[in-house]
């Protein structure tokens, strides 16, 4: 598995990252043995980056990931674990008091003494000035305490990143996690990469399968995409299937092709999915992407290119 530098953190993380939201049963039930096998297989195949949040499955993802990592008995310094704060099943709270308590609760569920990355989760749901003036300073203190090595921010709209990064002291945010903005149907993250690089910010791109849109099974009920986008993605998946090919493999490979992105975080709930996604990466390194299929799928998705959905509160 290819390892890539994550901004200026000094961390080298696997190009394919393990998104643990499915372990919180977000995309359907996952038996514990299946979850443990998925994490074990990921480690065996060279995945060293794991991402979770107290929000996923109302803390279940963190507890299950912690159990799976303990069960795998992997040395702590061989893995990079990220979790988040500020977004919970009960709602949003980015106050200093909440995030300071939240990290302790996350560490207890994960069974860890520290996380490598602590993100503010989906910051577009609060006034961004709170993130700048209250949350990031609180996370700095957490970093100084040793409970988190690096600090990140996540969310859907891309303008949140420039707003916050232009206003915090240099070095106080190490990474961003963007989702659903670098895949075959949406490449809008690309325009932000030079800015992020100039600031020394590591880039994590999540949801290469557009949260299930680019899979044969299709998206879960709760998927927020407009119907037009869902239909186009289904047509693209059908096209690949008719040709005996996999939309998922193509989508994974496409997202992995941009080296300005340190890791492609894909949600996985079984050893089989881990194997398929790692095989997609290996095959990409060996023989490149299927250009013909890519052009056909891009043509199907052209009418919905960069079509997204609203997320968060209206910012002044
Ligand atoms: P994704 O695009 O990675 O899609 C996940 C879905 O695809 C799941 O249903 C999974 O079971 C399925 N899948 C994975 N590999 C497959 C394969 N080979 N064949 C068929 N189906 C396959 O979406 P995601 O899980 O939402 O995103 C990845 C991770 O990124 C999350 O688990 C989470 O850790 C992180 N994330 C963070 C944020 C945020 O911070 N706001 C938002 C989205 C995602």
From TrEMBL:
Pfam families: Aldo_ket_red. GO terms for biological process: L-ascorbic acid biosynthetic process. Signal peptide: none annotated. GO terms for cellular component: cytosol. GO terms for molecular function: L-galactose dehydrogenase activity. InterPro entries: AKR, LGALDH-like, NAD(P)_OxRdtase_dom_sf, NADP_OxRdtase_dom. This is NADP-dependent oxidoreductase domain-containing protein. It comes from Eleusine coracana subsp. coracana. The lineage of its organism: Eukaryota, Viridiplantae, Streptophyta, Embryophyta, Tracheophyta.
């Amino acid at each position: 598995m290819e390892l890539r530098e994550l901004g200026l953190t000094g961390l080298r993380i696997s190009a394919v990252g393990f998104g643990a939201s499915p372990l919180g049963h977000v995309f359907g039930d996952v038996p514990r043995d299946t979850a443990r096998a998925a994490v074990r297989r990921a480690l065996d195949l060279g995945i060293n980056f794991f991402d979770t949040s107290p929000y996923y499955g109302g803390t279940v993802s963190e507890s299950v990931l912690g159990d799976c990592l303990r069960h795998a008995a992997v040395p702590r310094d061989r893995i990079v674990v990220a979790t988040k704060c500020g977004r919970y099943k009960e709602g949003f709270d980015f106050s200093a008091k909440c995030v300071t308590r939240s990290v302790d609760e996350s560490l207890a569920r994960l069974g860890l003494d520290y996380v490598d990355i602590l993100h503010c989760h989906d910051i577009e749901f609060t006034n961004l000035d709170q993130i700048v003036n209250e949350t990031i300073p609180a996370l700095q203190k957490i970093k100084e305490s040793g409970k988190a090595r690096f600090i990140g921010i996540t969310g859907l709209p891309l303008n949140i990143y420039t707003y916050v990064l232009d206003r915090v002291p240099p070095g106080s945010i190490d990474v961003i996690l963007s989702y659903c903005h670098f895949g075959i149907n949406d490449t809008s993250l690309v325009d932000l990469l030079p800015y992020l690089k100039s600031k020394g910010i590591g880039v994590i791109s999540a949801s290469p399968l557009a949260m299930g849109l680019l899979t044969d099974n299709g998206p879960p009920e709760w998927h927020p995409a407009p119907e037009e986008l869902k239909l186009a993605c289904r047509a693209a998946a059908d096209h690949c299937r008719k040709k005996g090919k996999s939309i998922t493999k193509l989508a994974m490979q496409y997202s992995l092709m941009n080296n300005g992105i340190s890791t492609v975080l894909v949600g996985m709930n079984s050893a089989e999915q881990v194997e398929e996604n790692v095989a997609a990466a290996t095959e990409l390194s060996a023989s490149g992407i299927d250009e013909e299929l890519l052009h056909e799928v891009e043509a199907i998705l052209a009418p919905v290119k960069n079509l997204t959905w609203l997320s968060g509160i209206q910012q002044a």
